[in-house]
Amino acid sequence: MLLIVLPALLVTACKTVTDSQTLRPRQLRDVPAGKLAFNFQADVQPPSNLTDDTAKSLPVIQQDFEGKRPNDALLRTISSPDGQRALALYGTADEPTTTFRIDLYSSDGNFIRNVTPPSLAVVFQDSVAWSSDSSMFAFVGRRSVAAQPTPTPLELQPEPVLPSASPVPTQTIGPAFAPLAVFNTEQVYVCNRDGYELRPLTSRDGLIYFGLTWAPDGHAVAALACKESEWDAREKEFKTATGRPRVIGLDGKERLLDDQLAEAPPVWSPDSSKIATAFGSDIGIYDAANKNPTQARIKLNETLLTASAAYEDKLPGKKVDSTRPDPAQSTAGAFHASFNPIVRLEWPIPEKMYLETAFIRLFNEPVHTWSRWHLVTFSPQAALMKK
Fold first, then answer.
1. Which residue did the predictor score with more confidence, 287 or 163?
2. 130 is in which domain, residue-wise?
C-alpha cells in the first residue's frame, strides 16, 4: 500500500472566505471547498457502503407482474427509504429496449398507479432515485418514439347523447394522465411519493442529463449534462458519457458548476454542503450553497502515476507491459496499464472520499478492468485552524 501525503493544493476558488478568518470551524461543512486540505492514500479497500447495482426486484412485485402483467417485463424495483413505496421499472412490447416506464406500488406488492404516460420514455436506470425523506423521486426521460393512439374514425364514434337522456359513461382505453411537457432530449423529472404532480425539473431541449443524484437533505439534485454531439462522440469511441456538472434546485433553477466535461457521476458530501466529480485524474469539489460558493481542484495525475508504478511492481507473477508510450503518462516515461481515469466517487463521511480508477469500454460485453480504490482525507487548511 502506498501512502502519499500532499500539501494543501486545492486551488481555483471562484470566491473565498475572508483571509482574516481565525475561528476554528466546528465541522467540515463550515469549511469552503476552496479552503480544504487533503491527504491521499493509494490502493485501499473499497468503501463498505458500496451497493450492488445489478437489477433486483421485490418478490411480491415480481409475482404481480408474472401473474397479472405477462406482457410487461419487470426490470427492477426501487424501494423508498422509508420502505413504504416502490417504483417498478418495466418495459413494454412497444417500447425500445433502451427505454422503460415507471409504475408505483406499495411495498407489500399492491399496485397504486401508473406514473409515466406513454408520451414519456424513461432512460438510465441508475438515475431513478428517491429523496432521502421518501417524499419525492426523480428520473430522466424524453419524448417517446412509440406510436401514439390515433383518434377514433367518425363512422366508429358513438352517437351524441341528447341533453334529456341519462349520461352514459364512456369506456376508457387506459389510465388518464395530466398534461405533461416532453422533450426531444433527456430531461430531469420529479414526482411526489403518491405518483402525482409529475413535472419536468429541466427543460433545456438539446442537452442530455444523466448521472442524477439527490442531495442527502433533499433540497436539490446534482447531475451531468452534455450536448447530443458530445454524447455521440463518446459513444462512437465505446466510452462512457461525459457531462458538465450542475446543481438543480426543486424550483428548477440550475447552476453550472464547471465548463469541463466530467467522467464520474457527481456525489454529495453527507452533510449536503458540497458536490464532487472527476475529470480524468482530477477531482473537482464545489460548494452547494448559492451565496458566495467556492470551488477547488485536486490534481492527482503525478500521484496516481507513481501509485500505479508501485502497484504493478508488487503484482505477483504478472508481467505488465510498460513499453507503450502514452501522452498522459509522459512524465513517468512508461505506460502503466493500471493507470486509468477516475470513474467513480463515494463520499461516506465528510472527512473521507473514496475514488475508483478503472478502464471501462462499452463493447457488446462491457469491459471494466484494473479497478482500484484510493482514499482522500479532508481537513481545514492550516490558516483556518488559527485561534
1. 287
2. 3-147+178-385
